[in-house]
Design goal:
Strands 1, 2, 3, 6, 7 and 8 form a six-stranded mixed sheet that branches. A three-stranded antiparallel sheet has the order 4-5-9. The model has no long low-confidence stretch (mean pLDDT about 95). Helices cover about 25% and strands about 25% of the residues. The two termini are about 20 Å apart. The longest helix is centred in the C-terminal third of the chain and has 23 residues. It has one domain. It is globular. InterPro entries: Puta_zinc/iron-chelating_dom. This is Putative zinc.
Length: about 230
């Protein structure tokens, strides 16, 4: 996302939520004295930002059901091969191929990876609105499966990617074995970020998300091997 898009998201967020001015400046790139503090929790390495000037970590907690911006303003919903079966059955499709034909879009997009190199991905995405087109990819669209209270009508069988928020994740080769890494998505949409002197307040979230993120990455990797998506670098 561009700084302009993040600023627009923050302005919209601040209509309903208080945003720490320090965090706002950080998300807008105005605070650069930041250290990466990796913490390994089970099978995932979390990269937690530490603001040296404040001597504090950036941590996160979820405010659902008071907030469901992650569902209202998601840019895309890539599906794993497991999702294709589970969600297809939930929507009463007899065959995954029919579900893919009627309820998804296949899109190719590029994003900067953790090292700065561009990563190009092709994914099968769940349509967030029934008439979604490729031109809508990456734009903010409220998910059609939200109910009036902001809950997910597909839960607990919603797409695996929905469980990741507010993290993004990637795989690296570590001595011949895959190592999963994760960091926050700072899109300006989430009110859950806060500053803390240590990591203790978020220890339960790290434990919970470690399994979620690891399982999703394994499923995503398997999806590419099965020919339902692809990833290329450079």
């Amino acid at each position: 996302m561009s700084q302009k898009e993040i600023e627009e998201s923050l302005d919209l967020l601040q209509k309903d939520w208080d945003v720490d001015p320090v965090l706002r400046n950080f998300m807008l790139g105005k605070i650069t004295d930041v250290s990466d503090r990796p913490i390994k929790v089970k099978d995932v390495v979390f990269h937690v930002p530490y603001l040296n000037s404040e001597k504090k970590f950036i941590l996160w907690k979820c405010f659902w059901p008071d907030c469901h911006n992650c569902c209202d303003r998601q840019g895309r919903l890539p599906l794993t091969s497991d999702d294709l079966i589970t969600i297809g059955k939930g929507l009463k499709y007899q065959k995954p191929s029919e579900f893919i034909k009627n309820e998804t879009l296949t899109v190719t997009y590029s994003e900067p990876g953790p090292s700065g190199q561009m990563t190009t991905m092709t994914t099968i995405n769940l349509k967030r609105k029934t008439d979604e087109t490729e031109a809508d990819d990456g734009t903010h669209i409220s998910c059609r499966f939200l109910n009036e209270e902001g809950g997910c009508s597909m839960h607990p069988d919603r797409p695996g990617v929905c469980y990741l928020y507010p993290f993004s994740s990637w795989l690296e080769n570590e001595k011949g074995k895959p190592r999963v890494h994760a960091t926050y998505q700072f899109t300006g949409d989430c009110p859950g970020f806060y500053l803390a002197e240590d990591l203790e307040p978020m220890k339960e979230e790290f434990k919970e998300y470690s399994k979620i993120i690891y399982d999703y990455n394994m499923a995503s990797n398997r999806t590419n091997r099965e020919g339902f998506g692809s990833v290329s670098f450079g």
